[in-house]
Amino acid sequence: MATPTLNMPDDRRLEELGQDVVAAAYLKGRFVLRSGAVSSYYFDKYMLTTRPAILRRIAEALAAMVPPETDRLAGPELGAVPLATAVSLELGLPCLFVRKQAKGYGTADGFEGEIYPGERIVVIEDVLTTGSEAIRSARALRDLGANVTEILGVIDREEGAAASLAAAGFHFRALFTKSSLGL
Question: What is the pLDDT of residue 9?
C-alpha cells in the first residue's frame, strides 16, 4: 500500500507546534523516568495525546515524515497508541499496537491488529530517553517478519535514544529534540 506524501509544516507552524507542546506537556520538578533515571523535567505525553488540537497537529507533522513505501504503522502501548492511530487516520494506513507483554487470554498475542511478513513498518513513539521501549517494540515486530524501516518520535530528550537506536540497527528521527524546543 502506497503512503501519500504530505508536506512538512512550514518552519513557523512547526515552531508554533513546538511552543504548544512545551506549554502543554513540559513539567519541572523531580521525576523518575521509565529508565529509572531521575530528571528535573518531564514531558507528559498524555497532555499531548488527550488534546485533540495538539494531537491533530502532531499527527499531521509525523505523517509528513512517514516514508512513502510504508505498509503499516505501529505504536507501542500505551502512550504511542493514540499517536499511531492519529497518524493512521491522517495517512489512511493500517496500524497495530505492540504490547509490553503478550496478553494471557484470548489470542495471547504480543500485539493488536494485523501484521504480515515482509511488511514495511514505521514505529511511532512519543517521548524517547534511552529508546529501550522503541527498540523492544521494533525487535518484536522484526521477530514477526516485519521490516521496521524507521522509528519516528515526537520528542527526543537527547539522552542516548538516537545512539541506542542506531546501535540496534534502526533509523530514527524525531519531530522535536529537547534542544529544538529551546530547553
Answer: 59
